TrEMBL record:
SUPFAM superfamilies: Metalloproteases ('zincins'), catalytic domain. GO terms for biological process: proteolysis. It comes from the Bacteria. Keywords: Disulfide bond, Hydrolase, Lipoprotein, Metal-binding, Metalloprotease, Protease, Signal, Zinc. Residues 276-404 form the Peptidase M43 pregnancy-associated plasma-A domain. InterPro entries: BACON (IPR024361), Ig-like_fold (IPR013783), MetalloPept_cat_dom_sf (IPR024079), Metalloproteinase_lipop_BF0631 (IPR023852), Peptidase_M43 (IPR008754). This is Zinc-dependent metalloproteinase lipoprotein.
Length: 438
């Protein structure tokens, strides 16, 4: 009998230990995942914000959109994680979701991040305009078509230096775009490479200069209200270095020399390729040599002036003919001259002096004001060769500032009436003006 009791006692103890063991296992298997924030409100300029993760197991953390970047993608146990929220270059309110999950899949937590829009702009507002270069090429190995990686970042940096020195109070900076229209982080910031089975493109057809631009070209462009689109391709006309669509205003806003739209429309309603086009045949001509009549950096700096509403400083009639002696750029502080007459004299001189020297450059950067007859040095970014191309005037800066504050299809916050904010279908013929540059 005693033997039986011992056996029963051992069985009871064994069962109790088994249950205790199971309870211990249950405690270990119950994963814990807690966070100290479920919502983050971030400023437009970006921020670094810490979140505390409390857990007893391994876990992962990821961002849906990619602009709220955790310092790690996985961790274990309890720790703080720094979230780097990048600057909102696109100025509209945006949202991202951080997802934390235990590796066993039993626990998930989310944090909603809302990044505010920019404050109401005024004349002192500092603009950062996201730029996307659409590099159109046929031969991936041809660097005059498919520009080398990293080069365009250097170019835009040089453009910013020119603009900063030319108009230090304008508060404009061009920055490489960091995300696609779908919110995906760009592997190569600011560069969108497109391979087409074509060597050269007719810029007039691409831009919609003479008729509506083909849908293929228009569809290439990203939302003009969020991006400055610069298209790089080999022009079929090698004498043209760049072409730019001049901006618009929305009634009742008006600026001399710009077309006025009766109402606001979405970029998808545009019948033209609203962008900057630059001839990539000249992509590797850079500043530093005064004996070069043009270079890629100054060409882009010049085209961006057109993009923000500037005209050429020399005389141009309504048909862009340059045998013109009147001031036509709507800026009284830019002296004008007859470009056709200047080129005729320059052509004669270069035939007699085929090897251009620095002394020759110094001679031909001088112009004669076609209104006053006075001589002046050409230093305006909106002139052509030969020129120093390193200045904007005060009136030019004010003109660009007006475009930044009011024009559609230019990134950044705007000053708008309630009516101007309403986006409608286009039920009117689109007026178009381009600036074509040699």
């Amino acid at each position: 009998m005693k033997q039986i009791r011992k056996i029963m006692l051992f069985m009871i103890l064994g069962t109790a230990m088994l249950f205790a063991s199971c309870e211990d296992e249950n405690v270990i298997q119950n994963s814990i995942l807690e966070i100290d924030k479920t919502e983050i409100k971030a400023p437009v300029e970006g921020a670094k914000i810490n979140i505390k993760v409390t857990s007893n197991v391994a876990w992962t953390i990821s961002s849906k959109q990619g602009w709220a970047v955790p310092e790690i993608t996985n961790g274990e146990g309890t720790r703080e994680v720094e979230i780097n929220i990048t600057e909102n270059l696109y100025r509209d309110e945006r949202k991202d979701i951080l997802t934390l999950a235990t590796v066993d899949g039993t626990q998930t937590k989310t944090i909603e991040i809302v990044q505010e829009t920019a404050q109401k702009p005024d004349e002192n507002y500092a603009y950062k305009l996201p730029v996307v270069f659409h590099v159109i090429y046929r031969d991936a190995k041809n660097e005059k078509q498919n520009l080398r990686e990293g080069y365009l970042k250097e170019v835009l940096s040089d453009v910013n230096k020119i603009w900063k020195e030319a108009a230090p109070h304008l508060n404009v900076e061009f920055v490489m775009a960091t995300e696609t229209p779908n919110g995906v982080t760009m592997a190569e910031p600011g560069v969108h490479r497109v391979q087409w089975n074509i060597d050269k493109i007719d810029y007039k057809r691409f831009m919609g200069y003479t008729e509506a631009a083909p849908k293929r070209y228009r569809d290439l462009l990203w939302d003009q209200n969020r991006y400055v689109n610069i298209c790089l391709y080999n022009f079929s006309d090698p004498d043209i270095t760049g072409v730019t669509t001049l901006p618009y205003t929305i009634a009742p806003d008006a600026l001399d020399g710009l077309e006025k739209l009766p109402n606001n429309i979405a970029p998808t309603e545009l019948p033209i390729s609203y962008c900057v086009s630059v001839n990539s045949l000249y992509a590797y001509t850079k500043p530093g040599n005064n004996l070069e009549s043009t270079n890629f950096v100054s060409t882009i700096a010049h085209e961006l002036g057109h993009y923000l509403g500037l005209r050429h400083v020399f005389g141009e009639d309504a048909n862009m003919k340059t045998d013109y002696n009147e001031d036509s750029d709507f800026c009284k502080d830019t002296p004008t001259y007859n470009r056709k007459k200047y080129l005729k004299e320059l052509s004669k001189y270069t035939l007699a002096h085929p090897k251009f020297t620095q002394e020759d450059v110094n001679k031909w950067i001088l112009r004669t004001n076609s209104i006053t007859g006075e001589q002046f040095t050409s230093n305006n970014i909106m002139d052509y060769y030969w020129t120093l191309r390193n200045k904007f005037t005060e009136e030019q800066a004010k003109r660009m500032q007006y475009v930044l504050l009011h024009s559609p299809f230019v990134p950044g916050p705007k000053i708008r009436t309630a009516k101007q904010k309403i986006v409608s279908k286009r039920n009117f013929k689109m007026p178009v003006r381009h600036a074509i540059c040699q």
